[in-house]
């Protein structure tokens, strides 16, 4: 089947009422009813710019730091790189999501490593958080080897549990705060109870710590739940996942800091085939718990 590349420029402007757009397609001088009949098809559009049809959040274009960076917590120190922070500031305003496949294997262990914590003050300023050049170079060099380990886990579908301390959270918050970004932290949804509902005890510890530090941040629960069975041999249907989000929202509501905080999900893969069914059933039970419905392209 021939495909027709289209470049559609969307304009957002102030004004009064107006329609989205209207147009007519032509093929060999006559009207054509479809867009897949000829690669030379021309589509003429008349844009009405008198009104705003849809306004997106000013943080719409956002970025992710993959949770694999915390596979060994020392690599999180790379977030103190001044070069990285300078580049990140150019992306603001935006969300910074910390998540990915390995977020569903991460467990919070609130016991700060004194070795890693050396020189990391409780309330450090953005200018004081400098990573020594020699340490940055060493971490980058070690990371190339770490990537091979992570790739092997990915290929074998054998993911080890990752334990992280307050240091990971502190560095993430410092990085986003000093870069003008808004942090979304991805929680582990594969911590399950005997009846296959979400075990929230570890997340509660994390929320309590973040609230004690007054860290303003948003939350997600799980990454690509459609692949849970493949990567962890755990099956969670969409309706149950929605109930898990309701449970998390209730936890947040009990917190003065996170009562009105953002909660996003369920981060399914491309919404097609069985993933559409998962998303539909999730929304049946969890739609009112989330601030935005998310999926991956």
UniProtKB/TrEMBL annotation:
It catalyses: endohydrolysis of (1->4)-beta-D-glycosidic bonds of heparan sulfate chains in heparan sulfate proteoglycan. Keywords: Cell adhesion, Disulfide bond, Glycoprotein, Hydrolase, Secreted, Signal. Pfam families: Glyco_hydro_79n. One of its GO terms (biological process) is cell-matrix adhesion. One of its GO terms (cellular component) is extracellular space. The keyword Aminoacyl-tRNA synthetase does not apply. It comes from the Eukaryota. It is an enzyme of class 3 (hydrolase). Its EC number is 3.2.1.166. Residues 1-18 form the signal peptide. Gene3D superfamilies: Glycosidases (3.20.20.80). GO terms for molecular function: hydrolase activity, acting on glycosyl bonds. Its main location: secreted. This is Heparanase.
């Amino acid at each position: 089947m021939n495909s027709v590349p289209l470049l559609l420029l969307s304009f957002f402007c102030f004004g009064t009422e107006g329609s989205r757009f209207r147009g007519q397609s032509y093929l060999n001088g006559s009207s054509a009813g479809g867009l897949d009949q000829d690669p030379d098809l021309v589509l003429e559009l008349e844009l009405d710019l008198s009104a705003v049809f849809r306004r997106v959040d000013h943080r719409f274009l956002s970025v992710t730091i993959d949770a694999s960076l915390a596979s060994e917590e020392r690599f999180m120190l790379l977030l103190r790189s001044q070069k990285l922070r300078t580049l990140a500031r150019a992306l603001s305003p935006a969300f910074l999501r910390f998540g990915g496949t390995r977020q569903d294997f991460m467990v919070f262990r609130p016991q700060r490593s004194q070795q890693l914590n050396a020189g990391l003050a409780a309330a450090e300023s953005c200018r004081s958080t400098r990573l020594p050049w020699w340490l940055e170079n060493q971490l980058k060099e070690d990371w190339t080897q770490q990537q091979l380990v992570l790739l092997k886990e990915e290929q074998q579908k054998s993911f080890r549990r990752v334990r992280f301390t307050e240091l990971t959270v502190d560095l993430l918050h410092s990085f986003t705060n000093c870069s003008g970004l808004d942090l979304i932290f991805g929680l582990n949804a594969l911590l399950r109870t005997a009846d296959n509902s979400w075990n929230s005890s570890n997340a509660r510890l994390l929320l309590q710590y973040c609230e004690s530090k007054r860290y303003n941040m948003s939350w997600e629960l799980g990454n690509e739940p459609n692949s849970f069975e493949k990567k962890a041999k755990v099956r969670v249907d969409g309706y149950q996942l929605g109930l898990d989000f309701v449970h998390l929202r209730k936890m947040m509501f009990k917190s003065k800091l996170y009562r009105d905080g953002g909660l996003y999900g369920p981060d399914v893969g491309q919404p097609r085939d069985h993933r559409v069914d998962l998303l539909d059933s999730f929304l049946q039970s969890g739609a009112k718990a989330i601030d935005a419905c998310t999926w991956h392209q």
